[in-house]
Inverse folding.
């Protein structure tokens, strides 16, 4: 009988997700700071 | 619907050419953005931002669209799928992210190109010039990661891919 539980997420995917979220937040903050500075 | 072996090879060739071309053109853009940020020569700065706008619209955007479309064809037309393997899913998300970043870029690039055409740039555009360098660096990084994923194809099935594999077994 096969195991009905999917395998856990690989470690490299977890590391990737953490780095991607950090970079995404950084870029959004940079864009917001730029817009605030230019007043548009 | 799965592609025939001949069509698959053709689609793969188109995808590799578009993706590598996209990476190279964004790297060229980064070189222009860095030169525009650091140069104190008004003529050089003007040439850089006018060139950057041309490169964006006539090289980077078409290659970006081609890479995305051929990537979707590759995923949907082969057994790899789009969301069955983590590496394919992450590559798709990276491509979509880089495309959004590029579209966000077009506004500041136009502002800089128009300002540079009108005369020497004033300091109120310094942050926009820096923003282009940061975003282009991130885009080069994201496209390099996508290239590495394509070659190494690290293992790992998504829950959906695992269920499909169980069903097809």
């Amino acid at each position: 009988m096969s195991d009905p539980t999917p395998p856990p997420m690989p470690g490299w995917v977890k590391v990737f997700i953490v780095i991607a979220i950090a970079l995404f937040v950084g870029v959004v903050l940079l864009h917001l700071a730029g817009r605030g500075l230019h007043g548009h | 619907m799965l592609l025939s072996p001949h069509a698959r090879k053709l689609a793969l060739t188109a995808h590799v050419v578009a993706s590598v071309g996209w990476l190279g053109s964004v790297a060229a853009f980064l070189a222009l953005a860095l030169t525009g940020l650091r140069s104190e020569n008004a003529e050089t700065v003007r040439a850089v931002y006018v060139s950057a706008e041309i490169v964006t619209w006539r090289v980077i955007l078409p290659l970006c669209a081609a890479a995305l479309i051929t990537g979707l064809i590759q995923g949907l037309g082969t057994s790899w799928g789009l969301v069955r393997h983590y590496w394919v899913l992450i590559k798709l998300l990276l491509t979509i992210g880089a495309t959004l970043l590029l579209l966000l870029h077009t506004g500041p690039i136009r502002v800089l190109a128009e300002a540079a055409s009108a005369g020497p740039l004033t300091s109120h555009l310094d942050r926009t010039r820096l923003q282009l360098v940061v975003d282009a660096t991130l885009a080069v990084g994201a496209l390099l990661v996508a290239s590495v994923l394509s070659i190494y194809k690290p293992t790992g099935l998504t829950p959906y891919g695992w269920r499909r594999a169980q069903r097809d077994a």
